[in-house]
Design brief:
By secondary structure, the chain is an alpha/beta fold. The chain has 4 helices and 7 strands. Strands 1, 2, 3, 4, 5, 6 and 7 form a 7-stranded mixed β-sheet that branches. The structure holds flavin mononucleotide.
Length: about 140
Amino acid sequence: MHILVIYDTKYGNTERMSQLIADELSASGHEVSCRRQSVSGEEDFVGVPLWVIGSPTHWGRAPFRFNTLLRNAAKDAGSDHDFVAFDTRYENMHSGAADKTHRMLVKAGMRPLMAPQHFVVEGSELRQGEDEKARQLGRTIASLL
Ligand SMILES: Cc1cc2nc3c(=O)[nH]c(=O)nc-3n(C[C@H](O)[C@H](O)[C@H](O)COP(=O)(O)O)c2cc1C
């Protein structure tokens, strides 16, 4: 299956999680494009049946430009697409970017493959163990396809 892993990142942590997830999906035999928001456009989503979306949490949500890109892509793509939303955030945050993205895409008619996922950042670094959690998420997504 063709899969788009698309992410935003400021300090590189969400990029790292995205790359690990993309690597696992590729290793499972899928055709994966792993792209950063700043060099992507709505055309990258077209015709791709599964979108894996990774976002840092900024003020409780995805950064504005990324959110706009996702909203427009969902509007253009129609409802026949699956997605997984994940974010990076501080510990003990009840809600983050993935929760809002998840709700927005469900509202647009897209099908979530699973509940929103998150990874914890401590200071400016990922908490220990998050790399393996990302690899596991990649394997879990692959097992659902
Ligand atoms: C402007 C700004 C706002 C942030 N707001 C939140 C927030 O509301 N909740 C939270 O859990 N983390 C917040 N953070 C921390 C980010 O979640 C963290 O920097 C991010 O996960 C790092 O991802 P990155 O390395 O991919 O940029 C904020 C960070 C920045 C720079």
